[in-house]
Amino acid sequence: MQTDKIIQSLIDNRIVSINLKKPFRYASGILSPIYTDFRLTISIPELRDMIADGLAELIRQDYPEATVIGGVATAGIPHAAWVAQRLNLPLIYVRAKPKDHGAGKQIEGRISKNDKVVLIDDLISTGGSVLGAVKAVRNEGVNVIGVASVFTYGLPDADKNFAAAKTTLHPLLSYADLISQGHKEHKFSDEEYARLSTWHQAPWDWTKREEQADAAK
């Protein structure tokens, strides 16, 4: 897999930004040293091809029994389409909720009780949206064998949520991969790497420390 090249492209194209001096504030209130906008990947042909190739290889390796690829609306749909094309497998996509008109479908595409579905999303934070899609497919009596994603923050809440849903997650890239490569390339010091490493382990504690340090200035 070309994970190093993908990470470099994410940074070069400002899809991923890291800033320890002025952390980003998420809607949840958490302060974070990282900001991502993975929806931008669909506009960069070389990058999206590397991602699709990587995800296809990952699924061949970790989910060889997959018979259907599913995209999680909306950001996971294009990646799922490119992966399904590479694997020559059927494609479905799953809405966040059923349509309020027509047949009221939440799942678009054709699946059967015998299928083994892998769902794809672009970004995993707590896993809420993709696990909602997992539940929707399982409610139809269809087996979801796991989830693949372009990126995961590796937050403890996500680990708990996937375990509770009895669902495996295999990401192409992780926050740990990102900061490890940055450290190797001397983009930040040992001290900065240590600060970055502690964030995804306990983001709320990290936020409190940053707020306290800022208040003490």
From TrEMBL:
* Chemical reaction(s) catalysed: orotidine 5'-phosphate + diphosphate = orotate + 5-phospho-alpha-D-ribose 1-diphosphate
Binding sites annotated in the UniProt record for 5-phospho-alpha-D-ribose 1-diphosphate = R95, K99, H101, D121, D122, L123, I124, S125, T126, G127, G128, S129
Top-tier EC class: transferase
Which biological pathway? Answer: Pyrimidine metabolism; UMP biosynthesis via de novo pathway; UMP from orotate: step 1/2
Q: Which UniProt keywords apply?
A: Glycosyltransferase, Magnesium, Pyrimidine biosynthesis, Transferase
**Entry-linked HAMAP family:** PyrE (MF_01208)
Q: Which NCBIfam families match?
A: pyrE
| Main function | Catalyzes the transfer of a ribosyl phosphate group from 5-phosphoribose 1-diphosphate to orotate, leading to the formation of orotidine monophosphate (OMP).
Q: Which family does it belong to?
A: Belongs to the purine/pyrimidine phosphoribosyltransferase family. PyrE subfamily.
**Any idea what this protein is called?**
Orotate phosphoribosyltransferase
Q: Which organism is it from?
A: Lentilactobacillus raoultii
